[in-house]
C-alpha cells in the first residue's frame, strides 16, 4: 500500500491575548497512514485530537511541521503550505471531514445538501438524486424531513445528515471527528456499516472516538492523545 498521509513533527499553539496566555495544543506529532488504513484516536476532551484534524483540513495553520498528502490531483503536497485555491479543491474532491456540528447554507434542504456533495464530484442530476435518496434512507432520516431545512432538526438528525453528506462523496481521505457522539445505538451501527464499506473500497480514514467498543475490529491502529502528545496504544 502506498503512503497516503505523513504528519511530521506537527506543532500548533494558540495565544489568548486578553489573558496574555500561550497554549501549546499539539507538540511534535508524527503519524503515517497508508492507503486504505483506518487509524483511531482517543483521549480526553481538550487533549488536542480535533486540532490534529483541523490542521490536516487546514482550518488551522500549524506553527511547525509538515503534513504530506499524496493527492490524486497535485501529487505529493504539504497541506500546511498549500494555496487556498488548491486546498478548496481538495476539500471538495479528495478530503472529507465529518464534525459533530452541521454548518449549512440557509434555505437549503437536507436532500439538496447531499445532492450538492455529489454534484461537486462532477456527477449529473440523476445520479445525485439516486445517491442522496440512498444515503438518507440508509441513515433512516424521516422522509418528511428530506425537503426541510436542517436548522429545525435535532442534534442526532443533523449529525446523521452531516455524515451522509461527507460519505456520499467517497473521499480518498476521510476525517471523522466524533461521528457517533450524539447517536443512538441503531444509528451508530449505520455509521459502522458505511465505514466498513468505505474501507472495502479503499478509503483512508482517521477517526476520533470515545466509544472504544465501536472502534474494536474497525481500526488498523489506535492512538491516545494526552496534553497535545500522541501515544500508540495496544488495542
UniProtKB/TrEMBL annotation:
Q: What GO cellular component term, any one, is given?
A: plasma membrane
Q: Which InterPro entries match?
A: AAA+_ATPase, ABC_transporter-like_ATP-bd, ABC_transpr_LolD-like, P-loop_NTPase
Q: Which SUPFAM superfamilies match?
A: P-loop containing nucleoside triphosphate hydrolases
Q: Which residues form the ABC transporter domain?
A: 5-235
Source species: Desulfosporosinus acidiphilus (strain DSM 22704 / JCM 16185 / SJ4)
Q: Which GO terms describe its molecular function?
A: ATP binding; ATP hydrolysis activity; transmembrane transporter activity
Q: Which UniProt keywords apply?
A: ATP-binding, Nucleotide-binding
User: Keyword Kinase: yes or no?
Assistant: no
Taxonomic classification: Bacteria, Bacillati, Bacillota, Clostridia, Eubacteriales
Listed Pfam families: ABC_tran
Recorded hits in PANTHER family, A to Z, give: IMPORT ATP-BINDING PROTEIN
The protein depicted here goes by the name: ABC-type phosphonate transport system, ATPase component
The superkingdom listed in its UniProt entry is Bacteria
Whether Nucleotide-binding counts among this entry's keywords is yes
